């Protein structure tokens, strides 16, 4: 079954259907389209093709990315959100979290616990330190 030249115009999307023929499973649709970058007319086999060549697609991509960057610049400086440290909210941090809060090594923290500079409690294998004890280190 072969359908001759059926010209149908879809002006709202710029499609001109050139030929349609049926040969087995593959489609032999030929569609005349206008390239969105260079405005030249080209023939494509799919309905989603927007550009006549790879070069036009690459140039359109670069133009789109450039426009996105310009929009960000035109929007002005964005306020920098303050970083929220969830460790500062913990009332009972473990050894690893206490090391991050104090900026010291694990072994230094264990030495401070051993010399009673810092109080710690053990729950099974887990060692925790009260946040108030950490704050007392700096106030004494």
Question: What tags apply to this protein structure?
Answer:
140 residues, alpha+beta, six-stranded antiparallel beta sheet, 4 helices, disordered N terminus
How would you describe this structure to a colleague?
With 140 residues, the chain is an alpha+beta fold. Helix content is 34%, strand content 22%. The chain is built from four helices and eight strands. It has helices spanning 54-75, 95-102, 106-114, 131-139; strands at 2-3, 8-10, 15-23, 26-27, 30-34, 41-44, 121-123, 126-128. Strands 1, 2, 3, 4, 5 and 6 form a six-stranded antiparallel β-sheet that branches. A hairpin with a 6-residue loop joins strand 5 (30-34) and strand 6 (41-44). The relative contact order is 0.08.
Write a brief caption for the model.
This protein is of the alpha+beta class and 140 residues long.
Topology:
Blueprint: E1 2-3, E2 8-10, E3 15-23, E4 26-27, E5 30-34, E6 41-44, H1 54-75, H2 95-102, H3 106-114, E7 121-123, E8 126-128, H4 131-139
Antiparallel strand pairs: 1-3, 2-3, 3-4, 3-5, 5-6, 7-8
Q: State the end-to-end CA separation.
A: 94 Å
Count of alpha/pi helices = 4
* Secondary-structure-derived class: alpha+beta
Helix share bin:
25-40%
Strand content: 15-25%
Rg for CA atoms: 34 Å
